[in-house]
Structure formats: C-alpha cells, structure tokens
Design a protein that fits this description.
alpha/beta; seven-stranded mixed sheet; 2 domains; Aspartate Aminotransferase, domain 2; 40% helix; 405 residues; single chain
C-alpha cells in the first residue's frame, strides 16, 4: 500500500528539493501577482526622495539603483541558482567567459600566481595563459589529474587554483576534494568551472570549492537562445572582491536573458536526466562501431577516472568525446554525413550537437598543446540532446560508415 502520509513543507526554499527550487525559488512578484516571473526592462530606478537615493548608494536602504548593478529579473535568476548550488550568494554575468574572468580577476593582482589544470576550454586557457600574465599574474599549467602536480606547483605567492571538471573536451577529472583541501592549507582560493557536470550532477562547493562559475549559455538555458553566466561564492568573497568588480567593469546579464535563464532552470532536472540517460546509451553504442578507436564518457567503467567520477558526480552527464580512425578527414566526413545531429561549437542544447575541437574550440591553443592534452585530429565532442536515443545512434552509425568510405 502506498504511503500517503504527508510531511509538512517548510516555507524556507533552502529546504526544498532541487526540482521545487528550480520552479519556485527566488520569485519576486509585483503588485499584479503574475504567475511567470516578470521581465523588468529598465535601465534605472526611481527613488521616493533624495534622502532615499543617498541611503541606497550607501547600502543603508535595500533596493535597486541601476541595472548594471542589479535588476529584479536578474536577481530572481541569481537567487534561484544560488538555492540550487547551495551557495551563500550568486552574481549573474553576460556570458560564461565573463563569469570566469570575474571569478579570477576580481581578486588576483600583479605579483600573484595561479595554478590551473591544463585541460580546459580554449578561451579559459587564454585567460590563464595569456591575459593573466599581461597584468603581472604568473601562471603554471599542470596535469590536474594528479594531486602531486598541484602540490609541486604551489609557490609562496600562489593565490588561486582553477580547473574544469569534467574538462572540455577530454572529460579529464580533477579530484575536487583533494585539491581544495590542499588549497585551504595554503590559503589559496579554488575556482571551479562546473559547466559540463551542471549543478544537477556535481556540487563543487560541497566538496570544498570557494567559487563556482557557469556558462549559463549551455545547459542552464538549454535551448540555444541566450548568452549568460554565473559566479557563486561566499558573502565575504562577494563583498571583498566580486561586487565592486562587476559593478565597475560591467559584465552584466541583460534582464531578458535572465528571464530566459529562469525558464531554462525550471526544466533543467528533467533535461539533464534524459540527456544523461541517452548519452550513456549512445556512448555504449559508439564503443561497438567499427572505426571508432576510443570513447570517453564519465559514466563508463572504462573512463580512466571512473572511480573519481562516481565519487563526486551523481551521473555520467551529457557529454561524450570519441575518436575516429583516419584523423581530420574522417572526422569531417563523419560530421558532414550526419542527418539529425548538428555541427556547432555550442553544447548543452536540447538539440544534439557535434564539433571537432582541433579545428574549432581548441584550434587556437596550437598543435603542441593539443597533443599534450590528448586532443587528436580524429577527436569529436558530442553534446547529447533530447532526441530519441535510437535515432541518434542510427545517425552516428550511418555517419561512421560513411566516414570509413
């Protein structure tokens, strides 16, 4: 017999399940009592008096001043993702790269040193490898899979650890707990890019991270509509570093994009669950196809770090990397033969998307860096969407055969 006993529900959204938080969390209703979140397309806000304006700018009166600093629609998005992540605070940004840049440059300064896992998105690598040194911030890139490499890279002036896990596109993992524990012993701030796992499958803050960044453009929007990003951190980090950086440099998320992201968050749990199930099925299917030399998926037992994936992730995710024999030519033939899966450098969409990292997302890091990371000319990155999994595998099967000639 089904247990129908009801447990009283708390009024505190922090106690709700993620699915409920992502539908109801952070809502600010206007005097009209709208069901859907309101879209506040305004640059500025009116004060009741000159005294209130002064108090608002002195942070003595709560409220909004200017949409570059804060906006009701953006605030709803920030609160909703804060609840999901379990963070003290969240700040939205115009893009994922704006989130990465703000998360790092808001507190680093000339004379500091950053250690980063070398397996990362090409633009993230630019921030660490090219932009930081321009401002006198030294950097060291390491193989982040081995904790001993992190230990060896620490210097007296090391102020930040930065990594993606799983990494783009190789799906390398970093042991979040081990690296953050090391960081805390040295007073180092750990910044984690959690875009591939999404907050549905991995919570870096729960493993000791100080700052988490997202490209909301990916799974959070989930339907290829808008750009956006988010930084999640402590109140202290916000007050000491992030708030002024965002306020003065202006990487603000537009209210319209925030509204779209709010709608995306409502369906994030069911999308991630369905896409992860399909990805697991497709990864297993790809591994059986002639001409596919390697399949990398966090949910497979043959992933080089399968034990770590189970330890810090609750699912294998939606991303697959695989290699086809025949290098670039075969990879191009495979992409061009696809009927359902689209060629695009985006990911996390409801549509399945494939890209060739050596000629797109990781082209600018150069052949030597790609070889160091294991990004071969035959590697392809697949973001699994919401289409029928059998249709997707049939599409890939036919394309692999076409690529083999």
């Amino acid at each position: 017999m089904t247990n129908t006993k009801k447990t009283p529900i708390s009024a505190d959204p922090a106690t709700w399940s993620p699915e409920t938080q992502l539908v109801h969390g952070g809502v600010l209703r206007s005097q009209f009592g709208e069901t859907s979140e309101a879209l506040f397309l305004t640059q500025g806000f009116v004060y009741n008096s000159a005294e209130q304006a002064e108090a608002r700018f002195k942070n003595e009166d709560p409220g909004f001043q200017y949409s570059r600093f804060g906006n009701p629609t953006v605030a709803m998005f920030e609160e909703r993702i804060r609840l999901l992540e379990g963070a003290e605070v969240a700040r939205a940004t115009a893009t994922g790269m704006a989130a990465v840049t703000a998360g790092l440059l808001s507190f680093l300064k000339a004379g500091d040193h950053i250690v980063a896992a070398r397996a990362m998105f090409g633009s993230c690598r630019y921030i660490v490898e090219t932009l930081c040194p321009r401002f006198g911030i030294a950097m060291t890139l390491i193989d982040g899979r081995d904790i001993e490499n992190w230990k060896a890279a620490v210097k007296p002036n090391t102020k930040a650890f930065f990594f993606e896990t799983p990494a783009n596109p190789t799906l390398d993992l970093v042991d979040i707990g081990a690296v953050t524990a090391l960081a805390k012993t040295h007073g180092i701030t750990t910044v984690v890019d959690n875009v591939f796992a999404t907050p549905m499958l991995q919570r870096p803050l729960a493993h000791g991270a100080d700052v988490v960044v997202y490209s909301a453009t990916k799974h959070i929007d989930g339907q290829g509509r808008c750009l956006g990003g988010a930084v999640l951190c402590t109140e202290k980090f916000l007050t000491d570093h992030l708030q002024d950086f965002i306020r003065q440099t202006g990487p603000s998320l537009s209210p319209f994009n925030a509204w779209v992201m709010l709608k995306g968050l409502e369906t994030l749990p069911i999308r991630v669950k369905a896409q992860s199930a399909s990805a697991a099925f497709i990864a297993d299917g790809l591994a059986t196809l002639k001409g596919i030399s390697r399949v990398i998926y966090c949910g497979r037992a043959d992933h080089p770090q399968a034990a770590l994936a189970k330890k810090q992730m609750t699912g294998g995710g939606q991303m697959i990397a695989f290699e086809i024999e025949g290098g670039k030519d075969a990879a191009f033939r495979l992409q061009n033969a696809l009927k359902i899966i689209k060629i695009s450098n985006n990911l996390g969409d409801s549509k399945s998307i494939i890209t060739h990292p050596p000629t797109t997302t990781h082209y600018r890091i150069g052949p030597e860096a790609r070889a160091e990371l294991g990004i071969t000319d035959g590697m392809l990155r697949l973001s699994v969407g919401l289409e029928n999994e059998q249709d997707l595998l049939a599409d890939l099967d036919a394309a692999v055969k076409a690529a083999r000639g």
